[in-house]
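dumping this here so i dont lose it
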């Protein structure tokens, strides 16, 4: 039986007055002085940001990006009075494996769109694997998705929403994939309601496994990884410290200044991607500015940052207990330069929490894997789910006609 959710078609159309105001604010930016020392050492480089904002004001064509985004079928679903935006693309030929993909911060649903052609029509791209029905929601409080008023809207809460969405679309059996917050949500989909899950696939280890009393001793490789991880976050933790404690204070500045918003978001895209310090080498400026513009025109930077308050604040911090284990088959793609200096987690670390069936060390790519290396990621997703779906006695279950 389909869940009683109301779904309506959606297309993006930003009012011209909003775009005019954006361009005027960019042109009237009050710039700080350049930080001493090497570029980017103290944060977003002034020269880079000036060049980018000049293009944002006078070269970037939002309407062209809007038209391109609207070629993807989009909808809004009402779930408990909250409207969730999502893209939905069925397999090009025949029935596809239903798969929900979830992004993280500071990203949007558009990060995952490069995966769509590879997953919905794999054979056209030389991928020897199954096709998928792809569902890509915007996280609550991002872009065109509402954020519920209650606190916390954490991994567990969103996992429940995603189960309702998939069942509301007519899927009884489905898989899930995600990175960053999306990996955490995907994990809790499997922990809280494993019955409909064919399998899950993640592109980073968002959730820390239980290592307390009764757990096995840490291996040398695990200790090395944790030491490198700690060193990385000591240098990188500033944004998370404020977003998990006082996000509203920061939100006033970011919601009011395009320069501030772009600086805050794109410094993370540079730091976390496999960019070798050069964003222009890794991503087109149109792609980056489409991401930032989506935050701006929907005024959702404040609500997006609350993910850190709701998941990482000491009052709400999500932790794993000794009895919690993901029994659902799990595929993990470890990208070579995800959080570049964090180090590569050993498989044994992941196996503390997950039933790892596929473990792939990727030769390149970073934190935003779907945008950086969509074909690599799609091939790994297809290879992982191929065996699971093909061996299931209920292969046809959950595929909406």
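and the seq i came up w/
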């Amino acid at each position: 039986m389909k869940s009683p959710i109301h779904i309506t078609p959606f297309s993006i159309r930003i009012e011209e007055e909003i775009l005019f105001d954006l361009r005027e604010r960019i042109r009237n930016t009050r710039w700080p002085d350049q930080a001493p020392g090497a570029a980017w050492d103290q944060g977003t480089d002034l020269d880079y940001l000036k060049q980018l904002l000049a293009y944002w004001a006078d070269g970037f064509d939002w309407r062209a990006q809007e038209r391109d985004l609207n070629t993807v079928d989009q909808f809004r679903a009402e779930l408990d009075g909250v409207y969730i935006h999502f893209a939905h693309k069925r397999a090009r030929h025949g029935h596809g494996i239903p798969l929900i993909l979830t992004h993280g911060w500071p990203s949007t649903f558009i990060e995952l769109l490069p995966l769509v052609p590879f997953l919905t029509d794999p054979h056209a791209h030389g991928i020897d694997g199954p096709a998928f029905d792809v569902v890509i929601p915007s996280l609550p409080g991002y872009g065109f998705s509402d954020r519920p008023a209650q606190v916390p809207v954490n991994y567990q809460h969103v996992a429940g929403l995603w189960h309702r969405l998939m069942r509301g679309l007519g899927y009884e059996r489905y898989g899930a994939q995600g990175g960053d917050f999306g990996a955490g949500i995907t994990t809790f989909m499997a922990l809280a309601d494993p019955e409909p899950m064919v399998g899950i696939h993640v592109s980073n280890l968002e959730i820390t496994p239980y290592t307390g009393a009764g757990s096995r001793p840490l291996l040398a490789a695990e200790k090395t990884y944790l030491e490198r991880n700690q060193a990385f976050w000591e240098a990188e933790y500033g944004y998370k410290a404020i977003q998990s404690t006082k996000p509203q204070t920061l939100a006033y500045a970011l919601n009011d200044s395009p320069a501030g918003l772009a600086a805050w978001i794109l410094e993370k895209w540079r730091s976390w991607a496999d960019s070798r310090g050069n964003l222009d080498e890794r991503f087109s400026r149109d792609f980056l500015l489409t991401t930032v513009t989506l935050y701006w025109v929907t005024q959702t930077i404040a609500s997006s940052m609350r993910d850190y308050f709701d998941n990482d604040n000491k009052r709400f911090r999500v932790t794993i207990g000794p009895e919690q284990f993901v029994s659902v088959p799990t595929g993990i793609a470890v990208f070579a330069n995800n959080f570049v200096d964090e180090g590569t987690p050993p498989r044994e670390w992941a196996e503390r929490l997950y039933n790892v069936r596929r473990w792939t060390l990727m030769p390149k790519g970073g934190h935003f894997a779907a945008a950086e290396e969509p074909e690599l990621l799609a091939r790994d997703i297809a290879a992982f789910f191929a065996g699971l779906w093909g061996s299931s006695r209920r292969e046809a279950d959950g595929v909406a006609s």
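Residues 393-401 have pLDDT under 50 and may be disordered.
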